[in-house]
Design brief:
The protein is of the alpha+beta class. The protein has two domains: about 60 residues, no CATH class; about 170 residues, Chloramphenicol acetyltransferase-like domain (Chloramphenicol Acetyltransferase). Strands 1-10-9-8-4-7 form a six-stranded mixed β-sheet. It has a two-stranded antiparallel ribbon with strand order 2-3. A two-stranded antiparallel ribbon has the order 5-6. The chain is elongated, with a radius of gyration of 28 Å. It is built from nine helices and ten strands.
Length: about 270
């Protein structure tokens, strides 16, 4: 190993004094004598071996960075537990037999309340009310039977730069807009502190993902866990909100989905706080 680095073995033995040399001693000598601490930190992060450099001078972080850029070395970044959970979740979702329904909601009445509440809060209320008229939107598969829940519990997508979370507003049909807004505010706080609990993610049968706030006009969303469907909310354009429903065909057929959408559209037009 010492020969591979071009280091005289006697020099190493003199350096270590104890007269017994191990592989880690050779590596420690190389790191100490040929690399600055910042260079070593960068090499550890990118998993770069000392052998890629010519060991005839002190190598600093700028030289290591230049090597990274010259050879286009990617930064290995371990997955967080949450990222692993997201990957497992979307992999399961991708295997579901789904179809999409594309529609627009008249936003005239909804936007009247945006001075007090976010569009997400308003839509949670609107969807929860409509779900109460269609039991399969409050259903999940459990073995060889359906579970129909008595209330409408809705998972809402919240995210930061690294992770996506789907905390659940339970029994949203029984909550006021103020209470829904408070829960959404709590989710934002938990997102910043990353202190969600397992209970926060349980109990939903439907989901909402709102990218309309970022100006995205239309998109498809993947169904969360065992939910029956999810609504992808786009931007409000010319007084209309685009909505894409992704639906689990095992739970909801096209006829019921069409009825749901028509009921939702009618409820939007006469929406009241």
């Amino acid at each position: 190993m010492a020969a591979g680095y071009g280091i005289d073995i006697d020099t190493l033995l003199t350096h270590r004094l104890q007269g017994i040399l191990h592989a880690e001693d050779v590596e420690a000598y190389v790191r100490e004598h040929y690399f600055t601490p910042k260079a070593l930190k960068l090499m550890r992060a990118y998993r770069i071996a000392p052998t890629v450099f010519t060991l005839d001078h002190k190598i600093d972080s700028d030289e290591v960075q230049s090597y990274i850029e010259t050879y286009d070395i990617p930064l290995p970044k371990p997955l967080t537990p949450m990222q692993k959970a997201i990957i497992a979740n979307v992999t399961v979702s991708a295997n579901k037999p789904v179809y999409c329904v594309y529609e627009h909601l008249d936003a005239t009445e909804l936007v009247k309340h945006e001075t007090k509440y976010s569009m997400t809060a308003l839509l949670v209320k609107l969807f929860a009310q409509t779900m109460m008229q269609f039991e399969h939107f409050r259903a999940s598969l459990y073995g060889d039977r359906l579970q129909i829940f008595p209330n409408a519990s809705i998972a809402v997508a919240v995210a930061d730069e690294e992770s996506l979370y789907m905390p659940v507003i339970k029994n949203a049909n029984k909550l006021t807009l103020h209470e829904i807004a408070q829960q959404l505010g709590t989710f934002k706080t938990k997102l910043k502190k990353k202190n969600f609990t397992a209970e926060d993610f349980s109990g939903s049968t439907f989901g909402i993902s709102n990218l309309g706030m970022f100006g995205i006009e239309r998109f498809d969303a993947m169904i969360n866990k065992n939910d029956a469907a999810i609504a992808a909310i786009g931007a409000t354009v010319e007084g209309k909100i685009s909505v894409t429903l992704t639906i689990d065909h095992r739970l909801i057929n096209g006829y019921e989905a069409a009825q749901f959408v028509q009921t939702l559209k009618a409820a939007a037009k006469k929406f009241k706080e």
